[in-house]
Amino acid sequence: MKLYKSLLAASALGALVLTGCRDDFAETNENKTAVVKAEPSYLMAQAVIDFEASDYLLWFYNTKMYGQWSQMLTPTGSFTAQYTEMTATGGQGSQYIKTLRYRNELKNLVETREAGATYKAYVSVCDVLSIYLGIFDSDIYGDIPYTEAAMAKFDGPLTPKYDRLADLYNQWLSDLDAAIANFQDPTQELAVARSGEDAIYGGNMAKWAKLANSLKLKIAARLISQNRTKALEIAQQVASAACGYLDNVDEDMIFAKGTVVTSGDGDKVYHFGNGIQPLAATQQVVDYLMASKDPRVRFFYTKDGFNSKVVQGFIDAGTFNQLPTYVKNNVVLDAQGNFKEWGGMGEPWVRYAGLPVVYDKANDAAYKEYFNPGTDYNLKIDDATKSYAHYSTLNEEMVRGRVDFTVPTLPGKTIQDTKDVPWYGMYMTSAETNLYLAEFKLLGANLPQSAEYYYERGVRLSVQAYDKVAGLNDIPYYSSTYNYDDNEVTINLKDGELDAMMATAAVKLTGTPAEQLEKVYVQQLLHFTMLPDDQFTTARRSGCPKVGSSLIAFQEFSDVKTAAIPRRFSVTDPTKTDQMYSILIEAYKAQGFTTGSNQSGGAYNGNSTVLNTERLWFDQGAPQWGEGPKM
């Protein structure tokens, strides 16, 4: 793929005060005559390459906070007073600028170049990418510079204004409507673009139109607490649009930026090289997935270290009783006390376990097997010793393609999978679209199908999408058992599993309207497991997980005020020498934000309620953590 190499001048946003390890918006402005013109398809291709909503810093910093605050992930040492604190942040806040640059360059070409009208679809591709990332960034920081951003090259301001969220949502809805019209125009060049220049849809404008239409639902979901009438109207427009919406896995925004490393930079092909933090699965979430016979538990999380050969090793060593209770309860022993077979749900289900949502239990003897097992899970044979994982973590190979996986084996033997696999990311999907439509139907939208139809389709499509991505990323055990343990089973989706899952009481859409709505939100939360920003946003706007729920329950802690759990990230005080100083001060004032440190030991730690009560516009009036949905 030929990539656009010219330097595009972006707006000098100065040291835009979005805290953490993010790209600085400040760019060097170049003489217009020094910028080499590129073909529109190359600009579009580079926008796709620079599209990033899942980078290393997001997974290393932000996801841990999102998951703990919503209780969809659990600290490996149990929850403590520090879990409400801000840590370093990254990978979010200015991602949209990367694609907006190309959008503005392409728009200029359309307006100034001969026959430029045939390039409108290229602009629309960049609009869709920029709007997706604009939602992603504003979900945490609120108002952002957008309409005047990255315009310095085109005589725009060096200090662009901050657009209000309400205005941005309206602008984005209008831009998406324009994009749909361009994608439906047969005169547009994108229809004949070389597939390699569109890594997402290979120049298929019908799919781009469906994506643009579906993206409107992401905006509608964020209007539920501020303008429900408009949100439902958007849903009705999307459902009735002639272009259609994402409704099959082969239409999903699932793609790899490349499959061959040609320049020595593997980050575009393999995503990134750094490892993410081991983020522990929550016991209640895993238990719900298991009770639902939900195959996604195998795609979200890693297997534990206790395969049948390892279990037999502990039996031989006389330390079987040291193993976690859930492991022992799933082992069937023969008359001689040796491993016979797996009980319970059998392999691979028995290999998944989460940590409980409890407060300050790291040194509590009653929780020793979870948080402080010492050497209980160590096994020594001759001079070799190994320790085995006793809980599941988010599957890192769903996040990046350069991960060396070590198979749990008895001490003295090593089996590794060191193959690097091009990374396929999942973004907007038909599952998300249908689950939104199920939500809006229950809230009163006039849609052609029933809530049950959209819900069941959404859940099925979610499982199918995750199975597809797990296979493309070749995560551990998807297609191989590594020929080590005869009782090991692959984790790929099996015939009949979807029907079995949909028949379980925990999944079936039954109960009162409020109970049905909770099930829809729970399924949205689960679908967003590998899309942490969307999961965090869904938790905020839905009030789920809900306190006392029979599905996935939110746990309140007497030592930590629920109102101290943040709803957004903090913003720091700008320096007076910053060109954006007055604009930043006004932007924070307009949103009602107090400024301060976001680092450990800063102003918002402990039981401070600042980051909970000073909410983003779309979050104002939304349920408190654990409060449950508002009908």
In short:
37% of the residues lie in helices and 5% in strands. The chain has helices at residues 40-50, 56-70, 95-112, 120-141, 165-183, 205-221, 228-240, 267-270, 283-291, 296-300, 308-316, 325-329, 368-371, 430-442, 451-472, 497-502, 513-527, 532-542, 581-591, 610-613, and strands at residues 73-74, 254-255, 280-281, 331-333, 339-342, 378-381, 384-387, 405-406, 416-417, 425-426, 546-547, 553-554. The strands form six sheets. The protein has a two-stranded antiparallel sheet with strand order 1-3.
Architecture overview:
With 631 residues, the chain is mainly alpha-helical. It folds into 2 domains: 37-47 and 91-143 and 161-244, Serine Threonine Protein Phosphatase 5, Tetratricopeptide repeat (Alpha Horseshoe); 246-567, no CATH class. Helices cover 37% and strands 5% of the residues. It is built from 20 helices and 12 strands. The chain has helices spanning 40-50, 56-70, 95-112, 120-141, 165-183, 205-221, 228-240, 267-270, 283-291, 296-300, 308-316, 325-329, 368-371, 430-442, 451-472, 497-502, 513-527, 532-542, 581-591, 610-613, and strands at residues 73-74, 254-255, 280-281, 331-333, 339-342, 378-381, 384-387, 405-406, 416-417, 425-426, 546-547, 553-554. The strands form 6 sheets. The chain has a two-stranded antiparallel sheet. α2 (56-70) runs parallel beside α18. It is globular and about 85 Å long. The chain starts with 39 loop residues before the first helix and ends in an 18-residue tail after the last helix.
Strand tally? 12
Instruction: Measure the end-to-end span.
Output: 49 Å
> What is the global morphology?
globular
Helicity range: 25-40%
Fraction in beta strands: under 5%
Estimated structural class = mainly alpha
Strand ordering within the main sheet: 1-3
The number of domains: 2
SS summary, helix count:
20
Question: Which stretches of 5+ consecutive residues score pLDDT under 50?
Answer: 1-36, 598-602
- Rg for CA atoms: 25 Å
Mean pLDDT: 91
* Main β-sheet description: 2 strands, antiparallel
